[in-house]
Every structure is written in C-alpha cells, then in structure tokens.
Write a structure and sequence with these properties.
By secondary structure, this protein is mainly α. About 70% of the residues lie in helices and about 0% in strands. The chain has 16 helices and no strands. The protein has helices spanning about 5-15, 25-30, 35-40, 55-80, 80-105, 120-130, 140-155, 160-180, 185-205, 210-215, 225-235, 240-245, 250-260, 270-285, 295-320, 325-330. The longest helix is centred in the N-terminal third of the chain and has 25 residues, at about 80-105. The radius of gyration is 21 Å and the shape is globular. The two termini are about 30 Å apart.
C-alpha cells in the first residue's frame, strides 16, 4: 500500500479541479447556435479554440489532445509515485509500442500516430524495440515487449502485436496496482480488466470468432476463466459478472444498465460507456478522501471524460450530429 505524501499535489488538484467544465457549460455548448456562441463558452477556459478551427475536426482533436498531454505531464512530474499514473497513462505507452513494433515488423512508418503520453517517452520505447534492452524500463516491461516481438517475428502478424501488447498492458496495470497501490487502485484496475474481458468475449461471439482467438484475446488477470466468461455471455448472466468486482452501493442507473445487458439490449458502445459510468461513480463515492493517490487518478479520469465530451460536442457539430445523438454518447460530467 502506498505510504507516500500526496499532500502537495492533492492541494494543487483541489485548485485545478475548480476549473473543470460544469454541466451548465456543456449544456451551453450543446445549445450554441453559432461558432460565436461556442466561443463565448470556451473563451474563459483553457479549451479556447480559434473560431476558424471550429469547423475542422482534426484541429479540434489536436487542441484537445495537446491539453490532455499537459495533464499527464503534470501528473507524471508531480506525483510522488509516477508509476501509479500508469493506471490511466499506460494505454498510451502501449499504443506507441504497437506502432513501433509494427514499424519494425513490416517496415512502415506510423510515427505520426504516436501520442506523447506515458512514463517512458517514444525514444525510450523505440530503443528497447530496436535493441531488445533498456536501462530505463523495468525488467518485466522489457520482457513483455521482447516476448511480443518474438511472437510477431515468428508469425509475421500485426494481430499478434495488438493482442500480445493488450495482454502486456493489463499485466502492467496489475503489477503497478500491486506494487504501488491500495485496495482502491486495485478496484479500479480490476474493473478495467473486467470490462475489457466481457467486451472482448461479447464482440468475439458476435463476430463468430474461434475459441482459440478468445484464448489469445482475453486476459487471465480477470476474475473468471474463459469458460466462465463464455457461460456468462451465453446465459446473459451479467449480474453475476458485475457483482464479482462491483464495490459500489446500489445505484439505480447501473442496475438499469445491467438489466439491459442481461436482456441483450446493450450495444458494445453502451457497454464501454457503462465502464466510464462505473468508474465515475466509484470516484464520486471516494471523493472525500484527502490523502493518498486516489485524487490524482480522479483528476486524470475527469479530464479524460471532459476531453471525450468536448470532442463529441465539437466534432459532432462539425459532422452534423444532432444534439440527441451527441448526448447519448456523452460520458458523465463532473458535478452532475
């Protein structure tokens, strides 16, 4: 369990959290009838975007990602235990590793797709992919990268890279939580693993994937065996699955969504939204904790949701989505 002093960074986060967008801000954005009205809402926030760029989805994405990069840079630099930031930041590192390994395997150059977020930067990851060794990365991470590298070389398969690094990513999260975290961080990681596994099995069944594919694609860090996950999906017994990792008190919204899942009425997109709803309620339940690493994870998570929602609103407007279409895709907003 973490015993580090988080007082300084938690005090900063209390200040920064005051600037998170509110439900009223998003309602104003949704109701904005012109670019000028959008500008009026965004002008006094760090999300200010030039008026001419509000018709360009690519420029909107770039602005939002630049701000998210700053959030992670702050978190990694100021956290007493930077590895814990990996609970949300590691997915970007493993995204970059997928790019690097695919470049090494098939000779493509997808560096422009990299995202500069993570405890280890792109050059450090590139070094271990090229040399199979590193003085910066932990030994277990080097081992996972080399293992996937060898599998990809043997099968000459980019799919082996995607699946192998997904498995390494969840092993990474589990290791970080066990080495640096506490029961709260362990609950977050376990929920992330469970939503990944159940989504993977549902999607695989809908696509008529083979059992061998499922064996490769699900992570053994979950609470159930593959056969148990299959039974849950085949019998629509998602209440059993949810109760295995749920640490929250009864919540009507979650209960209704699980009922919909049991009835086969929840899409993959809605299931992914359910994950964010669950984590949002988890952080709401723990919001009065003033010590330890949870507050920094909460802040990162809220900023991730904020960026997701802003992208939905602003890019959705560019693509001509209706207000209702945007709203049904939106994640929880801090303060709801």
């Amino acid at each position: 369990m973490s015993q580090k002093d988080y007082t300084t960074i938690n005090t900063l986060i209390d200040v920064y959290s005051e600037y998170l967008l509110t439900p009223t801000d998003f309602e104003d954005l949704l109701n904005a009838s012109s670019k000028s009205a959008l500008m009026d809402v965004l002008d006094d926030t760090e999300y200010r975007i030039e008026e001419n760029d509000l018709d360009d989805g690519t420029k909107i994405d770039r602005k939002l990602m630049d701000l998210l990069i700053q959030v992670y840079r702050f978190a990694y630099e100021r956290s007493p235990e930077a590895p814990l930031v990996d609970i949300f930041g590691a997915r970007y590192m493993y995204h970059n590793l997928k790019i690097l390994l695919k470049d090494a395997l098939i000779g493509t150059e997808f560096d422009y797709l990299s995202i500069p977020i993570g405890r280890f930067n792109y050059d450090q990851l590139q070094h271990v992919v090229q040399t199979r060794e590193s003085r910066s990365l932990p030994p277990e991470m080097i081992h996972w990268i080399n293992e996937v590298h060898e599998q990809a070389d043997d099968y000459h398969s980019t799919e082996a890279i995607d699946i192998g690094l997904d498995m390494a990513y969840f092993d990474h999260l589990k290791r970080i939580s066990e080495d640096y975290g506490n029961e709260d961080t362990e609950a977050i990681v376990q929920a992330m693993i469970e939503f990944y596994n159940i989504t993977t099995i549902i999607r695989a069944q809908r696509q008529d994937q083979t059992r061998s594919f499922m064996i490769e694609a699900y992570t053994s860090q979950g609470l159930f065996t593959l056969d148990e996950y299959l039974q849950i999906v085949e019998t629509n017994d998602y209440t059993r699955w949810f109760n295995a990792f749920n640490v929250l008190p009864y919540h009507k919204g979650l209960s209704e969504q699980i009922d919909a899942l049991n009835a086969g009425e929840l899409s993959i997109g809605q299931l992914e939204k359910l994950k964010d709803d669950y984590l949002y309620l988890f952080f709401q339940e723990k919001r009065f904790q003033s010590e330890g690493p949870l507050k920094i994870l909460e802040y990162i998570f809220y900023r991730e949701l904020e960026v997701t929602n802003l992208r939905l609103v602003l890019v959705g407007r560019v693509n001509g989505l209706s207000q209702e279409q945007i709203k049904e895709r939106m994640r929880p907003i801090n303060g709801e």
